[in-house]
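Structure ticket #2291
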Amino acid sequence: MLSTPYLHVDIDDEDSLSERFGRDKEPRLIDIAVIRLPRISNFTDFSPFERYENVSLRYVERARDLRAPDMIVIPGTKSTIADLQWLRQSGLEASIQKAASGGTLVFGVCGGYQMLGRHISDPEQVEAAGVTEIDGMGLLPLETVFQGEKVQTQTNGVFSGVAGLLSELNGKRYAGYEIHMGRSEEARGALFSMGNVYGSYVHGIFDEQEVADTILTALCTKKGVSFESLGTFDARAYKERQYDLLAERDKYHANDVRPGLTGWAQIHGRDELEIAEKAKLDGWYVEHLSFGLDVKCFFGTIAAVLKHDGVVEGGTGTLHEETGKENH
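Resolution: structure written out below.
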């Protein structure tokens, strides 16, 4: 019986295997609904939005759960045609079209962008979906054809020619990457739009803090609330801190322990401990690993769970940049 150290680190998850899907159930001041496609990919494109205290990022897979969000996002997918068929059969396509006609901001990324167009062709069966032609949602004047080699490229630049609700993006910088099979001849620039419907092939298009802030500011203005009421957040600094936590573990060799049932830090304060102290305790465990210590951890964990010792809602906090002290 071996133990695994306890340390929550919030970094990008594997596609379709994320605890993010269940985080937000109820709408907040600004509500963003991401369509949870069966073959969803690159859903961390939207993580910059989930760090604002009064912004909800809900993953929706049923039409009745869509409600009346301020923004609807159709994410990337491993199979555009198959997920478009699912979107149609689930009733979500009709709900999204109705919301778009009512002025709701709709944003598609990569495969979601292709779905928003008029038509998709797959003459060479690149997606192997058993369909060579299918109508899109008709919200953007876009025709997509699947053929040839996959596009894989890093991209960056400055937004220009953006109209409508998100026109304040003009002049702002973006950076990301493209990875897709379909090609859309009408697509020009990083962001294509018509009215309140927008689409992009760029993954990571929201990562720049100024981009996320500009979109949320536009939604706040439309809704008649202040951007400040959302609670500001530095997404880049947050991500850097999460990787700093991994570095703390390496410093004490806490990552050398094999997976198991519990951890030395778990029975010495868990969520209440500072990050550096957690890593140090786990490092001590690695150095003193024995059957007797595992038995002690096992029974200590049972006692801690029964007493709810050291369990703090939202746990772990952050590291202070200079002292390494955790802030709650």
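Closing remark: Helices lie at 80-90, 92-101, 111-115, 209-223, 235-251, 275-287, 291-307.
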